[in-house]
Design brief:
19% of the residues lie in helices and 43% in strands. With 320 residues, it is of the alpha+beta class. It has 2 domains: 166 residues, Immunoglobulin-like, CATH 2.60.40; 107 residues, Immunoglobulin-like. The strands form 5 sheets. The chain has a 6-stranded mixed beta sheet with strand order 5-8-3-2-11-14, with no helix packed on it. The longest helix has 30 residues.
């Protein structure tokens, strides 16, 4: 009888007192943990847990809306659960996970927006994935460019916090250039205004003016155009960038210029070769004069040897 009363009190505390800090049940084995973002930037969290013979607990993402939580088994049957804490990572307890269990709920106030950029800073103590809507083509994960392509998702294999930026509406600038009878489209994605675009066939370089600083800038083109490896200059100084390559042999170069000015993207081999040719100690000023100078020194050396021999002969005769 006492055991029944004790268990009843535990269940009552878990269901009725959602702010309790105690955690009841061993951590659940999570087969899947993901965030799904729709076209309106609404986020739904989903956890799929394995079978267990005893109650298990599942940590929730920060920002969880508790009244949106649903817990069902793989057959769609709703299961009893209790909320055991909402500070830091809140968690729920599932009392009878006799089959695979699906936990779903919504998150709120997760995005920060600056102009046309949406920023999501989120973390979880276990591996998780983020699925984006169809309209999202590229993202910046901790400032590293990722072309989503057909996959539309990323995996955070080690868990922890990540910073994800992407455009709410992608600002595209398309420039067409011609090289050796072939035409190429260069796509520039940035919120900054682009001026004075130019393609130099001889140096195989692209240049343009940016008019705002601290804006993401991504240039996408066919690899054949500049061929790589690449050097990117901002006002004649090298800047860091990240590169990604798609299956269609397109390359995307992404950077975040800290000042306004001219961006130049060129083939590194051309830049290195130009530096070598124009250095003062690589080529002689008058290379055609080398054969004549060599001949003069050869004649002078021969004459000097003859003079030395004659002097020796004369000195010997004088001694005799």
């Amino acid at each position: 009888m006492n055991k029944i009363i004790f268990l009843s009190l535990i269940v009552f505390a878990l269901v009725v007192l959602p702010v309790a800090n105690a955690q009841f049940g061993a951590p659940a084995y999570q087969k899947l943990t993901q965030l799904i973002i729709d076209e309106s930037e609404n986020i739904q969290a989903k956890h799929v847990t394995g079978v267990s013979n005893s109650p298990v607990s599942v940590n929730l993402f920060e920002g969880a809306i508790t009244d949106s939580i649903t817990v069902t088994n793989e057959d769609g049957k709703e299961l009893e659960f209790g909320i055991t804490g909402m500070s830091d990572y809140g968690s729920i307890t599932i009392f009878s996970p006799e089959k695979n269990t699906i936990v779903k709920y919504n998150l709120e106030n997760m995005f920060r927006q600056s102009d046309n950029i949406l920023t999501l800073n989120i973390g979880y103590p276990k591996p998780f994935s983020i699925i984006f809507s169809e309209k999202t083509e590229l993202i910046f994960l901790n400032n590293q460019i990722i072309q989503l392509g057909d996959k539309k998702g990323i995996s955070i294999n080690s868990g922890g916090y990540v910073n994800v930026d992407y455009y709410s509406e992608i600002p595209k600038h398309i420039e067409e250039v011609k090289w050796e009878e072939n035409k190429f489209d260069i796509k520039i994605i940035t919120d900054s205004k682009i001026d004075e675009f130019n393609f130099d066939q001889e140096s195989k370089s692209i240049s343009f003016q940016i008019n705002e600083k601290n804006k993401f800038l991504t240039v996408t083109m066919e690899e054949e155009l500049l061929s790589g490896p690449y050097t990117i200059l901002l006002n004649d100084k090298k800047i860091a960038y990240t590169k990604s390559i798609s299956k269609e042999n397109y390359v995307s170069l992404s950077m975040k210029p800290q000042v306004i000015g001219e961006i130049m993207i060129s083939n590194s081999e051309y830049i290195d070769g130009l530096t070598k040719i124009t250095s003062n100690d690589t080529l002689p000023i008058e290379s055609e004069s080398i054969p004549n100078d060599y001949f003069i020194w050869l004649v002078f050396g021969g004459v000097l040897i003859i003079v030395v021999i004659v002097v020796i002969i004369i000195m010997r005769k004088i001694k005799k």
